[in-house]
Amino acid sequence: MSITAHSALWFLPFVLPICFYVAFTDLREMRITNQAVILLALVFVVIGPIALPLPEYGMRLVQMVVVLVIGFVLNAAGAVGAGDAKFVAAAAPFVAPGDLRLLIALFAANLLAAFVTHRLAKFTVLRRAAPGWKSWDTGRKFPMGFSLGGTLAIYLGLGALYGA
Question: Which residue windows are transmembrane per the record (predicted)?
Fold first, then answer.
């Protein structure tokens, strides 16, 4: 992995609760809140200079802006939700550029697992534990925050364990 264990360990305790919150609110309300996205970006802005060398920190901020612009274009085209696009942009600077292929593979596996889990749980007693969740009755729509938050959490966890 290109991410260092040092930076992953700095980011993980701050990012993990936000990832859980994003997954939960997207399952419950089918939305990723602006507060969560802003908090995630703020965590990077504050912790980034401690966790990363300053030149790399600056490049990761550029990475966030580039991903935000791409997300706005995809949202305007109807390909992704606004909250999803904003969350991915806020999450982008936490990812080392050399880990992009790994991240895509993690996201693909996590998306498949999250989708199957959500669709199966919908028809089990687990649904009774959360009867008011909007995600149960949205038809073909899927709460991507469930998978996006999980992917970032898993990536940073792996980085903490196996990072450079």
Answer: 7-24, 36-54, 61-82, 102-121, 142-162
Say if CB 158 and CB 16 are below 8 A apart.
no
* Whole-number Cα distances in Å, 79 to 8, 26, 85, 141: 30, 17, 10, 12
At residue 2, the 3 state secondary structure works out as coil
Instruction: Output the six-digit token pair for 157.
Output: 């966890």
Q: Quick one: 28 exposed, middle or buried, by C-beta within 10 A (0-12, 13-18, 19+)? A: middle
130, pLDDT greater than 90: no
Give the burial class of 159: count Cβ atoms within 10 A of its Cβ; 0-12 exposed, 13-18 middle, 19 or more buried. Answer: buried
Q: State how far the alpha carbon of 158 is from the alpha carbons of 4, 16, 114, 128, 161, in Å.
A: 10, 13, 18, 33, 5
**Residue whose token pair is 């360990």:** 9
